[in-house]
Design a protein that fits this description.
Length: 232
């Protein structure tokens, strides 16, 4: 899942980007409150599954970024990550639209777990695993099983499969899938999504992911049977 970090401290921001990237997130990073407010109020903001937001930012405070985000109707889950540990600060952020609040210093694994919980709840899911027929995807462990057996996936394949299973019953465009798997500064080949989808079909069967010609790709809302045998 793709997330946005808004943090002006270069060392901390770099650590978050690398660490959360290793935890399986596609991470974009902004250092400026004004730029963050502009991005989160724009139509492109829908690509983010969650936001990690500092309160002490240049140009515009994190509290104002949050206020403008909510005023624009953006429901993206926001985890405030700040050195401010006072109760008034916590109340102001949470009552102002934040979904969670964590004080620095922090444990990176806890940040990742809180983000997964926020994303899960925002999608209306209670269970931590994505289950579709014989497929079980564990976002925390970055593990996928088919009929109880582990399936090796590249990070991009995992990101696309996670996005498709989380949106089961809906069609995702190629652009939406690119947004789920690639950050701003990453080069995306013109046929990258098609190649990844081909690999997923070989591993999980050709019936799992359906092409909606001229629109995108979809996974059925419910699996009526185990996926077909993978292609040889």
């Amino acid at each position: 899942m793709r997330i946005l970090i808004v943090e002006d401290d270069s060392l901390l921001g770099d650590g978050l980007q690398v660490g959360l990237g290793q935890a399986g997130f596609t991470v974009d990073w902004l250092r400026d409150g004004q730029e963050a407010a502009t991005v989160l109020a724009s139509p492109e903001a829908h690509c983010f599954a969650a936001v990690v937001l500092d309160l002490n930012l240049p140009q515009l405070s994190g509290q104002e970024v949050l206020a403008r985000c909510r005023a624009a109707g953006n429901p993206v889950p926001v985890l405030v990550l700040t050195a401010r540990d006072g109760v008034p600060d916590k109340l102001s952020a949470l009552d102002g639209g934040a979904d969670d609040y964590l004080v620095k210093p922090f444990d990176l694994d806890e940040v990742a777990a809180r983000l997964r919980a926020l994303i899960r709840r925002s999608a209306g899911r209670a269970a931590p695993l994505l289950v579709h027929g014989a497929i079980r995807l564990d976002p925390a462990a970055r593990r996928v099983e088919l009929a109880g057996l582990p399936v090796e996936l590249s990070p991009r394949e995992f990101a696309l499969l996670e996005a498709l299973l989380a949106a089961a019953g809906r069609v995702l465009t190629r652009h939406q899938l690119e947004e789920a798997a690639y950050g701003w500064n990453e080069t995306v080949d013109s046929n990258a999504v098609e190649v990844h989808i081909h690999h997923l079909r070989r591993k999980f069967g050709s019936d799992l992911i359906r092409t909606v010609r001229g629109v995108g790709y979809t996974v059925a809302r419910e699996a009526s049977a185990a996926p077909a045998a993978p292609e040889s």
